[in-house]
Sequence to fold (344 residues):
Amino acid sequence: MRKFIILTALIVLAISIPITAAQDTGTTTTTTTQSTANTSNVNILYIACETQGVLNFSGTMEAGYDIYYQLFSAANGGGQALSALRQVSVSGDYAVSDQVSYNSGQTVASGSTGSARVVMAREGNPSSTIYETTVNDLQDGCNSPQNPLVSSTGVDQASDTQPTQGVRSPSGGNLAIVTPRNPIVVIGVPQPIGRSNKPGEIFAECDQYRNISEPGILYNNDNIVIFWSWFARSQDQVQDHLDNAIYDVTFQTAPLQNVVVSPIQKLGTNYWVFYTSQIGNLSPGTYGVRFKLTWEQQIDDGYAKYGPGTTNDRVNGSCTFEIKENPFGGQASVRYNGMYSLER
Fold:
């Protein structure tokens, strides 16, 4: 697709993130852009205080993109959400700071670790991410902002703005992994992947966005549906994409057949179109989707330009997934919530 969410697969950003104690004011950071397709980058210094968080951002941001962040009470985005998702508007070369009080009654105790999940994404569309990371900080005091303060704005995550919760699904809502209900946590040992909330729906670019479009555990009785999508600010802009998009999508190296294009629909603040292909049940084994999108003429989705003569002249993606034998046999449906259970 491009988008659930999307920029292009050509964008590769490497960002050095400082993980520092709050009183450490001498840490320097370096940002390296590995692709000229998009020069946006960000340096982050996060300070976890007892009742508020302080974030210092600097770097370069291309037009049409912004910074989003959300604070949490434990390391790596764990624990309780201490703030809503917030948007910091930046453009060009920037050096700004923001400080936000935690949700009512919540604190990060001295000696505890808080964290900030930081996303670079389209203006007004944090689900259209080009980079996401998590920054931890030990709460050992509080420092003042290093840069001029900006006024961040809260983002309505009930609309089209869920960068950490999954790719928008053609059947409604977002894809998400159903994780084990009571996982046994072993330090250094990867935890098992669960079943998707929509088992069998395969996002055609899942390899590039594995953290938010993981297919999860799949069985030979799951109905496999391959999909992708496109969104824009207006219905006419989506139609312009439909008129000019050239898709080359293969399944097991063969061109994908019987692709159905949905009507244009408004979801959240954008207009969307979904492409789906029914595959059906598959035998146990490993399968692959290869995805390529180009355009006959240049288009504009209200956030960026795509097609000939732009830096977004193509989108390349892939999705590799594995089908397992249904452990219950026959056509019994299986859900994974820390234990197997039948859904008949």
The helical segments are 210-213, 235-244. The first strand starts at residue 13 and ends at 15.
